[in-house]
Specification:
Blueprint lengths: L24 E5 L4 E5 L5 H17 L8 E5 L3 E2 H5 L17 E2 L2
Parallel strand pairs: 2-3
Antiparallel strand pairs: 1-2, 4-5
Length: 104
């Protein structure tokens, strides 16, 4: 997602960790799980625009009532988010932090 251009590129299959760049926002829609990921270099204004855009996308599909929009920041990713990503060309840095998150 490019916030300025609101560019959304649909992907087929398991998304690759190589798409996660420090200056980008990434949305992962698994219907029953919905994530918005922010790179470390994304400023607050872009985060707000990204969250607004993700909220609109979230509401466009019928989802289980318990589904929530989960925000993930680079280096603080939930384990389930990381597990949904492919590691082709990039490895997980294996270490879990105390919140059971993987450091990418």
């Amino acid at each position: 997602l490019s916030v300025e251009k609101q560019k959304l590129l649909p992907l087929r299959g398991k998304p690759d960790l190589k798409f996660l760049k420090p200056d980008r926002i990434f949305i992962l829609d698994c219907v029953s799980e919905f994530y918005i990921w922010y790179g470390k270099e994304v400023d607050n204004s872009a985060m707000e625009k990204g969250k607004e855009f993700a909220s609109k996308l979230f509401k466009m599909k019928e989802r289980p009532k318990w589904t929530t929009l989960i925000e993930a920041k680079q280096g603080e990713e939930p384990v389930l988010f990381v597990e949904k990503m492919s590691t082709t060309g990039r490895s997980r840095r294996g270490a879990n932090n105390r919140n059971n998150n993987f450091t990418l």
